[in-house]
Every structure is written in C-alpha cells, then in structure tokens.
Amino acid sequence: MSGIRTNAAAELLGVSPNTLRSWERRFNYPTPRRTAGGHRQYDLGELEALRRALLETHNISSAIQVAQQRGEGPSSASRLVEAFERFDDHLADRHMEESLALRSIERTVEELMLPAVELAEGREGREAEHEFACRWATGWLHSARRVAPPATRDDGVLLFDASTGLTADGLHVQALELALRRAGFRVLLLSVGLAQERVSRAMRALDPTALVLCGKGATLDTVGRLVYAVRQHGSSAPLYEYRGSMPVTGSHTIPTLGQGPAEATQTLKTLVDAGAVGHRSTARLSAVAR
Amino acid sequence: MNLTAVAGGHSHGSQKQDVGFCSYCGLIGGDQRQRVCSACGLGMRLRTDASALRSPSTPFLIVTPDGRVSAASASAERDLAHVVGQPLAALFDGPDLDRAVARAAAGEGGVVTVALTRTGSRRFRGPVQATVAPCGEPPAALVVLERA
C-alpha cells in the first residue's frame, strides 16, 4: 500500500477530510489501513480509481461501485460465466443489473455479456452450460429490445443474419440489432437465406438506407443471391459486412462496419449523418431491375 | 425535430443560462470547481439550464442516455425509495417522456415540460409533470418532478 494520509487523500479527491471519513462510515469505501498510531492511510490505487469514477458518474454510491469494480480487476465476465456454470439465470441477471448501474446497455452487452458467452463457448464437456448461456443471453437481449425507445431516425437498416444455431456469433447479431434500435434506426433482422420474393416485401416495408450482412454462416452463393434480390427491387442501399461475415479469405470490396455492436452502430451513424450512405432507394421509382 | 412541437410538451423559452447544482441535495450554485458537493458530500456538482431546477427541494432524477436513473435527489429518494439503476420507464410514463429524455440526455433541445400519465409512487399519484433538460457532465437528462 502506498499509504496516503487523510488530508492528502481528501485533497486528491477534491473533498474535505470529513466527507472522506463519512464515505468510509456510510459506504465502507475507500478503506484505509491504520498505522500503529491509529492514523488512516489510504491506498493510492483506490483513490485514483475513485477519482476517475467521480468524473464518470452522477452520484457517490455509483462512483464507489465503479471504483470497487475496477479494483476487483477484470473479473466481471468471469463472474457471469460462474453464473452460467451454476445454471443460475437470476445470478446472471443480477450481474447484468450491477453492470447497468455503472455502464450503458451497449457497454454492458459488449464488455460483459458477449465476452462471457465467448468464454463459455467451445469448452469440452460444458455444452449444456454454453447452451444455457446463449438462451439466457438471447432472452436478455429480447427483453432489452422490447423496451428500446421508438425509432427517431427515418433511416432503416436491414440486417441479414447468416449465423447458425446458438452461438456467440448469433448473439453478436442480436446485440447489433439492439444497438441500432437504441441509436434510433428502424431495424429489420432477417435470415440471409430467405427467398427472393420475401426479401422484396421486406424491402418495400423498410425501404432501407443500408444493408448489413452479419454472422459467419453465409456462402458466396447466398450473398450473391441476396445482392441480386435487393438490386432487383431497385434499391441502391449499400451493403456492409459486420465482424468478418463475408465468406472470403482474401480482400473484398464490401466495407466493414467493425467488430462490435457499438463500433458498428457508430460507424453507420457517422456514414449516414455525413451523407456517405445514399438515401433510400430508387425502389419506389423503379420497378425494373438494373 | 423541435420538441416544442411535441404534443403535450412546451418549451421554456430560448434564453439559456447554465447553473450548477448538486445531484443529491439539489443545492443550486456553490463552488463549481468542486466535483463533489461540499454541502452534503453525497452528490456530484452538475450543470443544467437555470430554468429547469428552481428549488433544491423539488424532487428530481438524473437519467443516462440508456434511460436509466443514475442519481436521485434526496427528496426524490424520499418519495420513490431506491430507484438508482432502474429504467425511468419502470417509474414514470408519458406520451413524450421517452423522447424528451433521450434528446436531453444527448444534449439536444432545451427545457421542456411533459405530462406524466403513470407514476411509480403513491406520493406522485394524480396529475404530475416532468421538466426535462440536458445536464452533466457526464451527459444526462435532468427530470424534475412536479405536480401539474
């Protein structure tokens, strides 16, 4: 321990020594050790974590939770995996709720849920735990989607999902859908393998500004059919890929939105706001395929 | 879209004057160089439009861009008990509340007043309105609760 005395610790945090002592009584944090003479000595790491947390939160108890969590190290995803291993959905929910007191939904999904499901994936003999994790995470994302605010943008995004089965890859797609909805986009998520006439009806309903290929299960053939169906409808909406969903090993011309839902949402917002994404299509103007 | 056009809501004028306040005791003014309120030691000093919060004793909530309550004033805590971390939608509802809060939390728009049609507190049963304004840092929406 670095051993910072009370006055210096209080000064570092921009509070009075009395305030610092009152936090110790009320929240049991920061937790100084005592010298032989009974003087408090604060840990510099705790103070630094708290100082940063004070700037990122709106009340003291949240700041202290943030600082404590940082102090505990990167165990959040590991703790969620422990909940999966106990098949304890209430405990998993509680970890998410704790995180939501400190982070946004997007960060909670990206920094806690998805890493935890990825940790739970592919472990020998733990298939049941992994399936439980995926089903729980799917339910959680659906609940979050239900309470997402209504769209605030005219722009529609059509996501084509090529993920297969219960996987972290599929959850990434659902997380992207949630992030886009919460960013105000109108979003429709469909399977990449849908028949052409069904895609056409969806295109008419959404009139998308952008199309995004997600999930790693697509083949070049399905992507080709998809692009053909979209262009048949007269749409000029650009196609993007998410998390390396293009089924090619070399370079390709489909631009990527990124590797995570927050990055992809931000990239798309930037493109749309900058006018880089052509506005909605010629679909309503042209009944003729290109 | 301008929120003044939102049905049921109205804007409080265009002249904007920022004021500092404590997220817990509601103290308006005070030493703006300090992050933590020196009066109560339990709230952060934030800034908002001066017309949004007129009295420290008026209950208010701080709501993040996620729509979650990230802080409650002492008076809101008395009325609503423990609400930090809960979605605002679980406590209050109103035809324009979500949109007003989302815009304010994004730092957009001015001070608007919206009617609440449902409340999560016995104390607030009856006609209640919320004055919503951008505040921060970090960016959030200030939701001041008042009887209509």
Number of helices of chain B: 2
Which structural class is indicated by helix and strand composition of chain A?
Answer: alpha/beta
Largest sheet of chain B: 8 strands, antiparallel
Helical fraction of chain B: 10-25%
The amount of beta strand of chain A, in percent, is 5-15%
* Strands side by side in the biggest sheet of chain A: 5-4-6-7
What's the alpha carbon Rg of chain A, rounded to whole Å? 24 Å
Q: How widely separated are the two ends of chain B?
A: 25 Å
**How many strand elements of chain A?**
7
Largest interface, counted with CB-CB under 8 A?
A-B, 30 and 30 residues
In whole angstroms, the N-to-C terminal distance of chain A is: 70 Å
Report the order of strands and helices of chain B.
Answer: EEEEEHEHEEEE
Give start-end ranges of low-pLDDT stretches of chain B.
Answer: 1-10
Mean pLDDT of chain B: 82
Tell me, briefly, the overall form of chain A: elongated
Describe it for me?
The complex is a heterodimer of chains A (290) and B (148). Chain A contains twelve helices and seven strands. In chain A, strands 5-4-6-7 form a four-stranded parallel beta sheet, sandwiched between helices. Chain A has helices at 6-13, 17-27, 44-56, 60-71, 76-85, 89-100, 105-120, 127-146, 168-182, 196-206, 220-232, 261-273, and strands at residues 4-5, 33-34, 40-42, 156-161, 186-191, 210-214, 239-241. The longest helix of chain A has 20 residues, at 127-146. Chain B is mostly beta strands and 148 residues long. In chain B, a hairpin with a 3-residue loop joins strand 9 (128-136) and strand 10. Chain B has helices at 74-80, 97-105, and strands at 10-11, 18-22, 45-49, 60-63, 69-72, 92-93, 112-116, 118-119, 128-136, 140-147. In chain B, the strands form two sheets. In chain B, strands 1, 2, 3, 4, 5, 7, 9 and 10 form an eight-stranded antiparallel beta sheet that branches. The interface between A and B is medium-sized, with 30 and 30 residues.
